[in-house]
Predict the 3D structure of the following.
Amino acid sequence: MNRDVFNAIADPTRRSILMSLTSESQHVNALADKFDMTRQAVSLHIKYLQECGVITIKKEGRERHCSLEIQKLTEIADWLEPFRKMWTGKFNQLDTLLDELQSKPKKEL
Amino acid sequence: MNRDVFNAIADPTRRSILMSLTSESQHVNALADKFDMTRQAVSLHIKYLQECGVITIKKEGRERHCSLEIQKLTEIADWLEPFRKMWTGKFNQLDTLLDELQSKPKKEL
DNA sequence: TATATTTGCAAGCAATTACTTGCGTATTAA
DNA sequence: TTAATACGCAAGTAATTGCTTGCAAATATA
């Protein structure tokens, strides 16, 4: 079943949970309240996220505290890197063009 | 069925196809040859990627030419941005600490 | 101690995924 | 014109997803 970061962010509810954890760690029901589905559905997403290694869960009394494993998300950025090089390359070409246009006197255009 | 970029990169074969298209555009069978599965399986992944909007397919004779829609992948980077701020924030704190340690004479440590 | 709160587990379900095999249809080359 | 190549479509399958309802267990509160 080998779940990874890429599986973690494939679902909009799970992306939303992760985003929600950027501001503060939260327990299961606090997270569940934010979604229009049963507590159990959200609970399963949380379990899934844990199996992906993107969050950790710490038991505190009867509550379970969820917090982000932020460095796990760097794997996505790492994978994205060669693509990022491509699109920033394009932006640079556009920048170059714009610079050229700006440096020329209007008469020449 | 509403597929998006996040669905596109959720599968390792599809990630591999995308990576393969960074160097050059390729037709279906050329891509299929790279994987240890049937041509048809790869063909379905390609169709899936197209539906996600991350590649475009142009018919050229009897071949179908696949090329990256690179700007679509920026959506992932955009989503990742608040998280990136978090982990670079941490790196900065570490940098600060390292700077402090380096600026102090060894005796003080 | 009785009750409320927080949570996981189990079972069930329809839809989707990640493949497969077999076949049909363009397009190109012999 | 015949044969090879490049490809999609259809149907079938086992596993996974994304959800539900119902129940049980642990912990906290009255």
Remarks:
- The mean pLDDT of chain A is 89.
